[in-house]
UniProtKB/TrEMBL annotation:
Gene3D superfamilies in the cross-refs: Homeodomain-like (1.10.10.60)
HTH araC/xylS-type domain ranges (all copies): 238-346
Protein name: AraC family transcriptional regulator
SMART domains hit by this protein: HTH_ARAC
Organism: Fulvivirga kasyanovii
InterPro entries noted in UniProt: Homeodomain-like_sf, HTH_AraC, Tscrpt_reg_AraC-type_HTH
Record flagged with keyword Protein biosynthesis: no
Keyword presence, Membrane: yes
TM region(s), chain numbering: 6-28, 35-54, 66-84, 96-114, 126-145, 166-183, 195-213
Keywords from the named record: DNA-binding, Membrane, Transcription, Transcription regulation, Transmembrane, Transmembrane helix
Domain of life per record: Bacteria
Length: 357
């Protein structure tokens, strides 16, 4: 058949090209953790590009090796899992997770070399394994998110919410992949369903790619330190940070809305520079964000308290150490990912307590 494009394949081609562009922009952010997201978006984009060439028969004009892109399904799960397990301090990567992809490539390239026939049973087994592989990583991702949610620390709610978005988007792709081949094997596939995987891939590329590009700081790691010339050792910084956190939890100096770095340094009899360095390098935050996470944690305790449902948001803002409602709302949404009112409604709904009038 003569190679040709139709409306659907043009849409998918545009999505693939934009996905490649998005992944490139994510790579340019210069963060190893965000690079995982970049490779994830790139893998989806390359797969989508291959599907377009296959449907339009342009693959006949390209090297046969382009068909190896089908094996990228074995990369998607591990990359999503690595990204979900990484945080602002640590990059998670385990090469053993990529073994199925390596084995696929070996088989793909030795098959023509040794004239190995591609038996239908092998194809069926491969598809079943691909579906199981994707389902396994979807389950592993949600298991990790659940475990993370049960051990949530201050300031980590927005990171948890972002991970959930990635997890739901990836699982949506997994289910569409599974549904597609379920229709194939049951003989109920219709021509209008043939693009189901590509639609899911396009949704993933746009949703995760654009969100990840627009919010690179979500899981970005502080890799270039401005304290490279400092004489403060890592051990000393850890000791200082532990002391600061203990002081925060016992004395609650953050309830003072006028608390400044110099004031805290004087209270602890420490150098302001060393306090700032310890917080920046070990906790990945600025001093103001570090203080605000304690204030927000204090506010969250009041917002989910059934006995304080009649307490106005402005009063909670002032009692937790903020000067005004605007700065409180901005800090709360930055750290928690939702507004104080939404957080209160969510907590009261989960607890079954009556909503404030």
């Amino acid at each position: 058949m003569e190679p040709s494009l139709n409306t659907w394949t043009i849409i998918f081609l545009i999505a693939a090209v934009q996905g490649i562009f998005l992944s490139t922009m994510i790579f340019l952010r210069g963060s190893s953790i965000n690079n995982l997201l970049g490779f994830l978006v790139l893998s989806f984009s390359v797969m989508l590009f291959y599907y377009v060439t296959y449907w339009t028969h342009y693959d006949q004009l390209l090297p046969k090796s382009i068909a190896s892109a089908q094996g990228l399904t074995y990369v998607l799960g591990p990359l999503a899992y690595f990204y979900i397990r990484s945080d602002r301090k640590n990059l998670y990567f385990n090469g053993w997770h990529l073994l199925p992809f390596v084995l696929y490539l070996i088989y793909f390239f030795i098959q023509p070399a040794f004239n190995i026939s591609y038996h239908p049973l092998i194809r069926t087994t491969q598809v079943i394994f691909q579906c199981g592989h994707l389902l396994f990583y979807s389950a592993a991702i949600f298991w990790f998110i659940h475990a993370m949610g049960s051990n949530l620390h201050n300031g980590e709610l927005k990171f948890l919410l972002w991970r959930k978005k990635v997890a739901y988007a990836f699982t949506g792709y997994t289910l569409s992949f599974f549904a597609y081949y379920a229709l194939v094997f049951t003989g109920t596939l219709k021509i209008e369903y043939d693009y189901i995987i590509s639609i899911a891939s396009s949704v993933f590329i746009y949703f995760i790619g654009y969100h990840g590009y627009q919010n690179p700081q979500i899981l970005i790691r502080n890799e270039a330190s401005k304290y490279q010339r400092s004489s403060l050792s890592t051990t000393a910084a850890e000791s200082i940070l532990t002391r600061i956190k203990t002081y925060m939890e016992t004395e609650k100096p953050y309830l003072d809305s006028n608390l400044k770095l110099q004031q805290l340094a004087k209270q602890l009899e420490l150098s302001p520079h060393h306090i700032s360095q310890s917080i920046n390098e070990l906790d990945g935050q600025s001093f103001s964000d570090f203080i605000n996470q304690y204030r927000i944690h204090e506010a969250q305790s009041m917002l989910k308290d059934p006995d304080q449902t009649d307490k106005k948001i402005i009063h909670i803002a002032l009692d937790s150490g903020f000067n005004n409602k605007v700065s409180f709302n901005n800090a709360f949404k930055k750290i928690a990912g939702i507004t104080p009112s939404e957080y209160r409604d969510l907590c009261l709904t989960m607890s079954g307590a009556p909503q404030p009038k």
